[in-house]
């Protein structure tokens, strides 16, 4: 009987993992491209290998627009967690600029809603790091934009980094 429970549990776990992988793969394949301007941050981690810590200018816009109860200073002292959506305007190259925090208003054809999280007093998107092969840090020093795939719910997945001329950096996906 214990073997049957273990096998059923294993099959259930594998099914959930594979389902999650399938959803992310569909998100990457079908998500709309949105590019966010990077804000300067120091790359490198000796324990994790080479990576670039990421911060986005849009996060500063969101932080400024958040009500005082959710602002950086309040969160830093109270360790609250929150999340929401931001409305961005897309240009012809898919670059996003801040419009407003989402409060249920309708958006235009050129606008999108993106999910964000506030953790430890900082506004974050899907990730705050971009990992790359050891020894290729120089390739990513010119990074100016992060390319995300956005699904219908506004969830974002980072897929690439671009320079100021909108040329992809590193290996193509």
UniProtKB/TrEMBL annotation:
<dbReference type="InterPro" id="IPR025833">
    <property type="entry name" value="GDYXXLXY"/>
</dbReference>
<protein>
    <recommendedName>
        <fullName>GDYXXLXY domain-containing protein</fullName>
    </recommendedName>
</protein>
<dbReference type="Pfam" id="PF14345">
    <property type="entry name" value="GDYXXLXY"/>
</dbReference>
